[in-house]
Amino acid sequence: MPIVFEYSTEQSTLRIRNVRIGGIPGKIPTVLIPSLFYTSDKHVRDPKMGNLDVTQTEATLAMLTDLTERTGLSTMLDIIGTTPEAMDRYLRYLADATEFPLLIDGSDSTEVNVAGIETAKDAGILDRVIINSLTPSTEQILYDSIHDTGLRNALLLTFDTSALVSSNKRVELADQLINKSRSVGVKNILIDAGVLDIPTLGIACKTQHLLKTKYGYPVGSGAHNAVSTWKGLIPKFGQRAKEPALVGANLMPVVLGADFVLMGPAKHAPIVYPIVAMADAALSGIHMETRERPEKPHPRYMIS
Question: Cα(5)–Cα(1) distance, rounded to whole angstroms?
């Protein structure tokens, strides 16, 4: 097995509702996490109140369900809300509209994140939501909400300005975040290694290996940020270069061992899912020498 996939710590495999995540690369399908209801998302009619274009949202959910079934990959949804009212409406709608696990993403707003957690408890979906995210600057009130509601799933973002160019510093931040989240009852921990731009995508990929080696928790990153902040992409290479860049950015963490990828807007799913499925199928081949096969469903069995 390649040295990059050798870890001194046993790798944890978590189950959040119907999705398995984590473990040795090549055995469990990568979890792709498309974003919905972000700024300028055409699914949203009123971002303050959370009014949706239901027809378009249903079509997107159907598309993601189809890609999940056809590729063998797993899917979670990153639900972005800018107000408590919007987050409440989004979560209540999705509680019935899909079975995918949901990430509560209040865009660093404590108020929105707390509202999302409370809605999830009231709607009876606390077991299938994940707070996105707990960071070095997270306020105590959010930790209190996690404790008081009994939320058990959290994504930790091990990144701040002090760790901009240091993978070791990001591991130190992870130490702090893990201890803090455990203290309020978090059991299922996922770690986002933090991507801001192209250079930090490389640092995040190194960090994810260090984190899996030290803790064994599922790791990944918002790799699409490397493209969304690439100012010279279209001026220098044209609009046609954007889609290959998105695919490349989302693929890089996977081939280097990521368990999940926050892949950006859901509209890009048709170009990202097939290529990540190909990578998963290829990675499963590294276990052939030891006569190990991934469990079904897995891209290895689905895409040929």
Answer: 7
What b/e string do you get for 169-206 counting C-beta neighbours within 10 Å, with b at 16 or more?
bbbebbeebbebbeebebebbbbbbbbbebebbebbbe
Q: Which two tokens stand for residue 23?
A: 């473990």
φ and ψ at residue 19, rounded to 5 degrees:
-120, 130
Domain count, the chain: 1
Give the model confidence (pLDDT) of 72-93 as tens digits.
999 999 999 999 999 999 999 9
Compute the distance between CA of residue 152 and CA of residue 131 in angstroms, rounded to an integer. 9
Domain with 178 in it: what CATH number? 3.20.20.20
Provide the β-strand partners of residue 156. Answer: 134, 191
What domain range includes position 139? 3-302
Other Cβ atoms within 10 Å of 3 Cβ, number: 6
The pTM is what? 0.97
> Among candidates 136, 131, 129, 76, which has minimal Cα distance to 107?
131
